[in-house]
Design goal:
The protein has about 525 residues and is α/β, with parallel strands linked by helices. The chain folds into two domains: about 210 residues; about 250 residues, Nitrilase/N-carbamoyl-D-aminoacid amidohydrolase (4-Layer Sandwich), CATH 3.60.110.10. It has 16 helices and 14 strands. Strands 1, 2, 3, 4, 5, 6, 7 and 14 form an eight-stranded mixed beta sheet that branches. Strands 8-9-10-11-12-13 form a six-stranded mixed beta sheet, with helices on one face. Helix 5 runs antiparallel to helix 6 and helix 6 packs antiparallel against helix 16. The longest helix has 29 residues. The protein is globular and about 80 Å long. The termini are far apart. The relative contact order is 0.12.
Length: about 525
């Protein structure tokens, strides 16, 4: 009877178990060991359904992966309902591609195809970081963000290395269960111990290599403005004045860098005349009281194009005058000793900040999601490449919100000599949900990958300081109006990790080599059979 009941309800186990395991493994719950078994039910389902109806198998697979997406990223619903539905449907669809390839490969190769599945999934993640519908939030390696002590080797591999580790553990554990073999179980245990020892060694090696010789005092301002009713509705000058007053509570004569969150200046700064903007002038008055202070702030910016005979670029917006166009930007500015420096966010959120493939289909821009009646919609302009701010004795990477989940892109700032990573963001759109906690956890991985101090200024939190080992040394509370300070010890030699130097190119080389070797082995096998 028990066996009959288990058989009857097996479909529910296959449907829910993967999503539940992966959701519980993800931050903020963070039972990370469940990441190593999340795919085991799907591998077993594939085994049982290999010779059965392909469509029914795919529907079951899609449902399982959909629940993983839903349980872990449901909070996107709070910012945009159409965006959340589109994200859930499409991201789940894309996740089925490596599984479909595995099903086909298994039909041709049998059991050895399981190793190709690892290649297929890593290739999917690699490509999913690099197109207009990119949404790498659920990269498997991100699931280990709750255990920074275990992933100190991300400074070599990045999060794709974590994905490879999680996939290998799933395969070994599944084979242990399938074959009832102690050897595979011992293999999984040995891999886990090896990874832990590698983490300890990497952290120790970096500590011995780096010799901090520069001290920088940094202050973070967290104003906590409600983005729905306040931030984009109140006059920008009022909020800037309040942030100046709030900052003064923590800034002193030793403070060198002050960091404000994303879109702190909501009245657009003209790219051509930034110093003339009244909010910029108001912020600059802080430097009269604190002459050495450098202020990094998020800002809305715009650029006007005059005397145009046609649309100047794919993100330019029309006006009533057909010869006059303009671009909107989500930007970061540095107000300091030098003329104002700025950077426009390069990696934009699909659907709200950039419509996918708008450069090829300009009409699609009309479908952009507007978060509320006070914020701007449509595709934003962007800088063609990362820009590192020269703040005198240090160089600062202005990483804006969504960009901080891209380790490879963050590395481009480091390659351009960034000493400190500054993430400015507004996570308030999601409310008090797991979203902002996951975003913070991913910032810890960026600090490990590039071995840089990371300063995180979030409108409503959580703001804080993360050391090069991914440890949060000081942080604010959620939706707290406050300013906090910390002293950062920096190595001015700007040593770079392997991942900072090569980024995900490491994995492109590895995957290409594996595909070549597997292809060669398959060719030799066919040749042997025909002979």
């Amino acid at each position: 009877m028990i066996t009959a009941m288990m058989t009857r309800w097996k479909w529910l186990y296959y449907l829910l178990a993967p999503g539940l395991c992966l959701w519980l493994a993800w931050p903020p719950i963070g039972i990370f060991v469940l990441l190593f078994v999340g795919f085991v039910p799907l591998l077993q389902q594939q085994e049982e359904w290999q010779q059965r109806n392909r469509l029914q198998w795919w529907i079951r697979l899609y449902g399982s992966l959909f629940f993983w997406n839903l349980f872990t990223t449901w909070w996107v619903w709070n910012s945009t309902v159409p965006g959340a539905i589109t994200m859930l449907v499409l991201n789940t669809l894309f996740m089925t591609f490596p599984w479909m390839l595995y099903r086909y490969a298994r039909k041709k190769l049998g059991d050895p195809a399981i190793y190709l599945f690892v290649v297929f999934w890593l290739t999917y993640e690699f490509l999913h970081h690099r197109w207009d519908l990119s949404w790498p939030w659920l990269t498997l390696g991100n699931g280990l963000a709750s255990a920074p002590w275990l992933v100190q080797w991300y400074d070599i591999t990045g999060t794709l290395g974590g994905s490879a580790f999680a996939l290998a553990m799933n395969v070994l554990i599944w084979k242990t269960w399938k074959y009832r073999s102690r050897n595979y179980g011992l293999g999984a245990t040995a891999l886990l111990v090896f990874v832990w020892l590698s983490s300890v060694f990497n952290a120790w090696k970096w500590e011995k290599t780096v010799k901090p010789d520069t001290t920088v005092n940094v202050t973070i301002c967290q104003p906590s403005y409600d983005p729905w009713t306040e931030k984009f509705a109140r006059p920008s000058s009022e909020m800037v004045a309040e942030m100046i007053a709030l900052s003064k509570k923590a800034v002193d004569k030793n403070t060198y860098l002050l960091v404000w969150p994303e879109t702190s200046i909501t009245s657009s700064i003209d790219v051509n005349y930034p110093q003339q903007h009244p909010d910029v002038s108001a912020i600059a008055t802080l430097r009269k009281e604190f002459p050495s202070l450098q202020i990094l702030s998020g800002a809305d910016m715009q650029q006007v194009y005059e005397n145009c005979t046609s649309r100047p670029n794919s993100t330019a917006r029309p006006t009533q005058d057909p010869r006059l166009w303009w671009n909107a930007y989500n930007s970061a500015v540095l107000i300091g000793d030098r003329p104002l420096q700025y950077y426009h966010k390069n990696i934009l959120v699909p659907g709200t900040e950039q419509m996918p493939f708008v450069q090829h289909f300009p009409w699609i821009d009309k479908l952009a999601v507007k978060l509320d009646e006070n914020s701007i919609s449509g595709s934003l302009g962007k800088s063609p490449a990362p820009v590192v701010f020269n703040a005198g004795k240090i160089k600062v990477a202005p990483i804006i919100c969504y960009e901080s989940i891209y380790g490879d892109y963050t590395g481009r700032f480091v390659k351009d000599s960034a000493d400190v990573l500054c993430v400015i963001t507004n996570d308030a759109w999601w409310g008090n949900t797991p979203g902002y906690k996951q975003h913070l956890a991913y910032a810890q991985l960026r600090a490990i990958e590039h071995r840089r101090w990371l300063v995180r200024s979030a409108n409503t939190g959580i703001s804080g300081f993360i050391n090069p080992y991914g440890e949060i040394v000081k942080a604010t509370n959620w939706w707290e109006k406050t300013a906090i300070s910390a002293e950062l010890n920096i190595d001015s030699s700007r040593k770079m990790t392997l991942y900072s130097r090569m980024g995900d190119l490491v994995w492109l080389i590895i995957l290409s080599l594996i595909c070549f070797l597997l292809g060669t082995a398959y060719y030799l096998r066919l040749r042997k059979v025909t002979v």
